[in-house]
Every structure is written in C-alpha cells, then in structure tokens.
Q: What sequence folds into this?
C-alpha cells in the first residue's frame, strides 16, 4: 500500500492533523506512523512546518510541491453509482420506487451519496439505470449527473451492468457505489492511494462474501459465507491502472455463456491472482448499511414501522385493519407474467380478525399495461360465479376497479406437474368439472377478437409486431378462425390461463387460481392452452386430451372423434400461441422481457397450421 499518499491526503484535508489522526487513517500504530512520516519526508514529499513549535509525535509537516504532484496523480476522477436493478427483496416498496430513491431519515439514499461525493469535490458522477429509469431523471437537473441505461437490467446481473459502464470507467480513478447503500459518515476522499473494497466485520455466521487478506491488507481470497469475518460491504474504488486490466476480464466473462447471473465481484474473485492488488478498506461497525429488506429498514428508521409510503402496504393495513408493523415476513413472488405479487404474514398477536392472525397471504398488483388486457370487473364476476364449485383460492379482498387482489397463501402447497400422469389427470378432471358445471358468464373469450384487439393496442402504443412474416401468418390465422367458426362449437366457462402453475395441490385438495382471462369459450381451448404453456409436443397433446377424456369427454368432446378433437385442440394451440406472441409484443413496449417465450408461442401457430393442412382441415 502507498502509505505516503494517505499521509499526504490526511494533511491535505487537515493541515493541523496529528500523528494520531494519521495513524487512524493508516490503521497502524503511532510508532509505525512516526516512521512512515519520516520516510515520506525523506522522499521529499513532506517538510517540517517552521511555524509549528511542537515536539515529539505532534511535530507539524506541510506538503511539498513534489507531494502535491504525487497527490494529483491519485485524485479521484469520478464515481459510478449502480442503480439499475429491481430490488426484489424490498417489495412492495420497489414496485413503486427504485430502492436507491427510498428515504432514510428523510433523505434519499442515492442523494446522500451524491452530496457526500460533492463534499470532497467529486462531481463527475454517472448513474447506471434500468428499472423505473425515468424516476432518476430529476437528478440530472438537481446534481448535474449523467445517466447510462443498462438494457439488460431485467435479465442479467451486475457483470452486465459493469460491461455497459466500461467506457465510462476506462482511464479513470473511480468509485463504484450502490445506490441503496447508506454511509453514516462521509468515507469518500478527493485522493485515494490504492484500489480497495470496503469491508465490515460480521460477528458469527454470515452469508456475505468473506475476505482473507495478507498482512499488508491485500485481498488474497474471497469465499461466500464465513464466520467472524471481514466481508465485502459497501463502496469500492478502482484506480485507472486496476480498471485497465479488470475491464478486459469483464469483457471476456460477459461474452461467456453461463455468466448471465454473475455479479461483477464474481469476476474479481476468480481472478484476484491475475489482477493488480486490491486492498481491504475496513470500516467501523455502524458505518456502512446495506438494508436487505423493509423489516431491516424498520429497525433503523422508525418511520417505516407504520408508514412505509407504499400504497400496497397501506392497502393491506386497511383490509386487515392493522398497523403496517403487523405486516411481516415480506418477500417477492417471481411467478406470473401478467402481475406483480408479494407474500406477507400477519403477526400472531395482531389485532386483525382471529382467522387472519399468524396466516400468510399474497397481494397481487396488476402489471403495467394490464388495464387494457384484463377486465377486472369481469374477473370479479368470475370469482363470484365459481364459488359453488369450491375450486378456487380463498379471496380476502378483490378490487374490480384496479385489480388489486389479496388471497390466502396455502402453506406447503405445490404447483402441478403435467409430466406426472396422475397430476395431469387430476387437473384435466377439474377443468372438465368446470366446463360441465353449467355456469354462464356475461362475457366471452374469443381468440379472434382478442387478436384484433392486441393488434390495435400495439398500434395505439406506437409499437410494432416484431415478426417479419406476420402479414402472411395473419392471413393463415384467418383461415384457421374461419374453419373454427364453421365447427359450431359449444361455449362453456373456460379458464384460458390453465398453465400448470395455476393448479395448486394443497392440504385441502386441488385448487385453480388466477382467473383473470376466464370467459365463455370452447372448452377444448383450455386443453390447448395447457399444452402450449407447457411446451408440449404432439405426443404430450394427445396424452393431455386422453387425460381429459377419461370415461366421458363431457360437453367438450360430445360427438367428436379422436381425430376431430385433436384437430380442434391443435387449431386452438395455434391461434392461442399467436395471440400470446402479440400479448408479449404489447408488453415489451412497456419494458418487459419474456426471453424465448415469444418465439415459442409464435412457432406454435406455424406448426399447428401445417398439421391442420396435413389433416385436410384447411
């Protein structure tokens, strides 16, 4: 470590600094500090201050011209703040606001860091944004920062973030900060001696990245988890020399398959021996905070105990007639492509009605753009209509105006697995029960009408259908719709969204959940949707048809041969796949990403069309 730079920096920041101040900055003894000061003076970087008449360890020094020149070589040029991620552990707050923009003691975390940087003269600040990127725009005007958009924020981890920031980092002495860190004191400086990673001592067992260092503070090894260890925690500093080497590794690892979920630290840890030395920067207890979730923040800033500022939290509190502090064990649920859902538990000793105390629930928040795709009043009507069947999840609250829903969470429940014949049969039997129930709804789910609506929504949003051959495919789809119309099929209540994840095996029996697409439709459409959502091939489709048929195919298969049933299911697989590919195209306009799901759905139409032609149906 270049101790002379730290000595010079300390005196630059405070010309009246004592040896004790310098010893604290160096994290060494007073005796060693005295020797290091003398060595720095011997290098011509310091000279005795003639104005200081002190003696012993308190003898004053001033920085020479050579010392000033050395300091300038170590000036911090810039700071990069990482703020593109979603912050899933901080739901439901992060559904409405990026984590870095949450307030701690009335001050937004990212703004606190920007002000701390400004206090030491660092004004070249760039923020990597992605999720809710527009929320950060005001910082450009308020603090003259720059924003860089990370196009892969939703599907890759921070290795990709650093890759997209590489041009900004190159050639700079630069801090790397997380927008959601909170530092009690200003730990930044105008000058830094060496590359470092901040560290906090973790007592007992920890799941953080635990560091092993040499006597000089160089990081030698990092392992995930440890006990009574100094762990990576908080800001990082790169010298331009470190970045020059490290960014080459970032570029290499970014291009490797299987690294999509790497943190940038994964690259660092794997290559410590090949990189310029990086040092530990030990911070005292209570200096650096990385709040993991809302409950952790509650213990730090009591404002969040009962007033988180989240509309979703306030809704839950109002529904259960409890303070927000009784909403605990909050976590994000990843399942679902249409909505955002989070899990919570009501405290055991809560004032909530007795049947809710100590129980867990799911709160659903409609996703962006769904107000056009889903009619929430119709969804509410469906839940009321199917109550006599006893096959749905238990609802606590449903708002037909905005789609917010709170339902019971079934402990130890699991999703159905269509690969298991007995589970596939159970799910298809429940679908058949629904279809044969005689329940009538006032609304229909018509695949052709829905397709035309989605086309219009995409145009209205100034988006585009991304498939080059869509005009041809659309003409073929109309052929299929014409054929389906001629079959004069019966319409029953149909779930439409019968993906395996919407069948729950609970301790109380099988349940069907998420009825937002339900309407009157051909019951065979449900078999088709179950097939395409599970990416079934023809053999899988035929097995699903037989699982549904059982001893009696019910109204869905009345008067149909096996070939006729297969043809109809195939047709619905095709038009359903085409519909959901447009559904994705519309949602993509709002910044969502569905991986290869869009391609697979579109391909289902093409394959189905060819099968129908071979069967001479069209």
A:
């Amino acid at each position: 470590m270049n101790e002379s730079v730290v000595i010079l920096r300390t005196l630059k920041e405070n010309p009246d600094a004592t040896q004790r101040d310098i010893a604290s900055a160096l994290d060494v003894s007073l005796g060693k500090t005295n020797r290091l000061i003398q060595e720095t003076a011997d290098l011509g970087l310091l000279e005795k201050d003639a104005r200081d008449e002190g003696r012993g360890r308190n003898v004053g020094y001033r920085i020479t011209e050579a010392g000033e020149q050395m300091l300038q070589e170590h000036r911090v040029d810039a700071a990069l703040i990482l703020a593109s991620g979603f912050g899933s552990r901080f739901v439901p707050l992060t559904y409405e606001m990026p984590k870095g923009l949450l307030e701690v003691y009335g001050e937004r975390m990212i703004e606190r860091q920007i002000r701390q940087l400004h206090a030491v003269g660092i004004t070249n600040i760039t923020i990597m944004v992605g999720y809710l990127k527009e929320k950060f725009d005001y910082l450009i005007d308020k603090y003259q920062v720059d924003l860089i958009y990370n196009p892969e924020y939703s599907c890759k981890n921070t290795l990709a973030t650093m890759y997209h920031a590489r041009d900004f980092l190159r050639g700079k002495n630069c801090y790397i900060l997380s927008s959601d860190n909170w530092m009690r004191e200003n730990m930044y400086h105008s000058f830094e001696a060496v590359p470092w990673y901040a560290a906090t001592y973790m007592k007992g067992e920890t799941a953080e990245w635990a560091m092993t260092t040499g006597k000089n503070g160089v990081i030698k090894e990092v392992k995930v988890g440890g006990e009574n260890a100094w762990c990576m925690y908080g800001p990082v500093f790169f010298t331009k020399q470190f970045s020059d080497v490290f960014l080459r590794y970032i570029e290499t690892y970014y291009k490797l398959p299987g690294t999509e979920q790497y943190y940038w630290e994964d690259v660092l840890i794997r290559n410590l021996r090949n990189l310029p030395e990086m040092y530990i920067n030990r911070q005292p207890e209570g200096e650096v905070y990385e709040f993991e979730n809302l409950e952790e923040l509650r213990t730090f800033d009591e404002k969040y105990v009962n007033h988180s500022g989240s509309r979703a939290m306030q809704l839950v509190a109002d529904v259960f007639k409890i303070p927000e502090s009784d909403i605990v064990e909050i976590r994000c649920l990843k399942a679902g492509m249409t909505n955002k859902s989070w899990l919570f538990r009501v405290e055991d000793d809560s004032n909530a009605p007795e049947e809710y105390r100590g129980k867990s629930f799911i709160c659903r928040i409609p996703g962006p753009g769904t107000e056009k795709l889903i009619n929430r009043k119709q969804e509410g009507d469906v839940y009321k209509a199917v109550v006599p069947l006893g096959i749905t999840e238990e609802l606590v609250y449903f708002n037909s105006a905005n789609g917010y829903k709170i339902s019971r969470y079934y402990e130890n429940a699991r999703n159905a697995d269509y690969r298991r014949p007995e589970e596939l049969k159970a799910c298809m039997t429940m679908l058949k029960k629904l279809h044969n129930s005689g329940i009538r709804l006032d609304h229909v789910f018509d695949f052709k009408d829905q397709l035309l609506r989605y086309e219009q929504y995409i145009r209205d949003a100034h988006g585009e259908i991304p498939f080059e051959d869509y005009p041809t495919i659309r003409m073929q789809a109309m052929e299929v719709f014409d054929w389906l119309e001629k079959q004069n099929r019966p319409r029953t209540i149909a779930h439409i969204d019968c993906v395996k994840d919407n069948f729950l095996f609970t301790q109380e029996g099988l349940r069907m959940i998420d009825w937002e697409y339900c309407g009157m439709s051909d019951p065979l459409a449900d078999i088709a949707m179950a097939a395409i959502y599970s990416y079934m091939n023809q053999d899988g489709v035929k097995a699903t048809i037989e699982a549904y048929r059982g001893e009696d195919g019910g109204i869905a298969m009345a008067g149909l041969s096996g070939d006729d049933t297969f043809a109809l299911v195939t047709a619905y697989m095709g038009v359903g796949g085409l519909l959901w590919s447009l559904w994705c195209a519309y949602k993509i306009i709002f910044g969502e990403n569905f991986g290869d799901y869009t391609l697979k759905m579109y391909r289902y139409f093409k394959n189905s069309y060819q099968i129908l032609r071979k069967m001479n149906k069209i």
Remarks:
- Residues 562-588 form the longest helix (27 residues).
- The chain has a mean pLDDT of 92.
- The chain is about 40% helix and 20% strand.
